[in-house]
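Recap for those who missed Tuesday's class. We walked through two folding examples back to back. For each one, the amino acid string is listed first and its predicted structure tokens come directly after. Nothing is annotated here on purpose, so try labeling regions yourself before you check the end of the notes.
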Amino acid sequence: MNKSTLWTVIGVIAAVIIAWVLVDVLFSVLWFIGKLIIVAIVAAIVFFVLRSMFSRME
């Protein structure tokens, strides 16, 4: 195996490791953003339900 082939193999392994980490971080960020959106929607629904309940009491 010559030097060029060795560096190619090392480059491919490094590229796969870097891509794995980047995809993992990307999915973690997207999951976090998705959870934030779901929490915001549920909080808005709860807020409007509570507001309508308290406005009926008065």
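Example two. Treat it independently of the first, because the proteins are unrelated.
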Amino acid sequence: MTRVQLRHLAQARSGDKGNSVNIALFAPNDDVFDALAAQVTAERVKAHFDGLVRGEVVRYVLPNLRAMNFVCRDALDGGGSATLRMDNLGKCYASNLMRLEIEYDGEPARPGGEPESPCSEP
């Protein structure tokens, strides 16, 4: 098995509401979804955001959409109107999650399902 960053396998989108962050993770096919469902757990997401997400992380699995939704509570230091953080929004959390590595034995794919080109960015 090879360790692969999520950015080579999936797509994500995130946003914020108050002091919570919502991250949606989408797989391009069933094989990738199965690997994500087995390895991208609420506990791993919370550990990945150690120091940023202080509350619980809840994972909702949507197999018919090959997607997962993570709700991260107490993640924005009080929310937009209360925090002193420079970036008080949750929009950057999806990009950050894409650096998480999982074990995957298939071919890395771009989100559209195409094999990754040897000329792609690292």
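Answers for example two:
Confidence is low (pLDDT under 50) at residues 115-122.
The longest helix spans residues 30-39.
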